[in-house]
Amino acid sequence: MLVSMRVLFATAELSPIAAVGGLAAAAAGLGIELRRAGVDVDLVMPDYGGISLVDEVSIELDVPDWAGPAVVRRGHHVDVGALTLISAPGLARSHPYLQPDGSGWDDNSERFFRFGRAIAALAELERPDVLHLNDWHTGSALAALVDGPPTVVSIHNLAYQGIADGSWLDLIGPHADHFEWWGGTNPLSGALALADRIVAVSPRYASEIRTPQGGFGLDGPLSERADALLGILNGIDTDVWNPATDAHLPANFRPASVAAKATNRLALLERFGFDDDPTLLATVVTRLTEQKGIDLLVPLIPLLEQIPLRLGLLGSGDAVLAAQLRRLADQYPHHFAFVEGYDESLSHQMFGGADMFLMPSRFEPCGLTQMQAMRYGTVPVVTAVGGLVDTVPDADEHDDGLGFVAKEATPEHLLAALFRATRRLSTKTRRTEIQKRMMNVDWSWVRPAQRYAELYRELLDGAKA
Fold first, then answer.
1. pTM of the prediction?
2. CB neighbour list of residue 257: distance below 8 Å, 6 or more residues apart
């Protein structure tokens, strides 16, 4: 049984209030599951504006002039329950990071240094048992924190570090020397140096970030702190991603009734303008960024008819890549369809109706969509990186395999994995066996939350020793 503890959990994103990437879903999923487990979690995020709270109270924080005035609004939010919002100059914006034209706000560094300073002030005022920070946006809190509680820093994506001008070293706090980075100020490097524990969002990612290929310049500092670093795999919201109750699907189903996917498959074929025949259907739901490796699929699209395979892709991002995908969809309409943008209902239908789900990432700290796909009995084809390795054992190599893994993030290795997958999945009995196996895996936040709660307890016990 958990002894009651209070955790101040700070994040720049929290689904569904401010959701840009996986950080938002992870923060909400973990925070809510920890509460169910009996941990008193104070979810703290920037007040981006327009966020309504019930039973609201306000607290003014003691921060330096450059960081203030800083005010806490605390109350109940309809979607996430108890919520703490921090208001400071510049934080309120239409998007957490981006201007309407897609470029970053010019003062992003200043905005999140203020946020970090306010987090430190709140921690010093209220003395939580543990302070849990997430990604670079919150890291500078440790520059200012003096005699604070035990601290955890989670790395959701090491590629983003928030490096800023070196002049911030004169402002952010007494531990600022840990944040000096080649003449600049790196809020993530300093946090990694000062945190009591560092958590990567999958075990494989915890190893990758200590290599020159995966460390984005921080592999050395992370290797020096290897004893404090661990990997805890994220979960997904299995209430939202539940094929048995999903209102977006034409037909609901469970592992025992996975054959009902055929109804969803037919609807998806019609949505993409594909013929109703036995050719396997694959989908992709993604952002069009270099990380996600969608450009690696481009040279494979003319080969889909020979595999044979049909592919439907939903995504937005890089304009050049989107233009390529539009041209290919016009050129190969019987085997490739591209829907630009993001459509929540369609994304659920693409998980619920496809035979396969493709995820050709160049790097992937954890990945959520491969777990969402498996929850819906859609077999993933992934690259051998990060959390994809931890969640998708290859069905050609393991008796309990759940998908197919390309050894490297290249078109050639992806093509080989697709050939293997289509060969195996073209047999209905083999496909059904894998589908039922993956649908019976617990992809929820229950086990990750238990591991985080154990980590908090270890830190508290260590602090009392």
1. 0.95
2. none
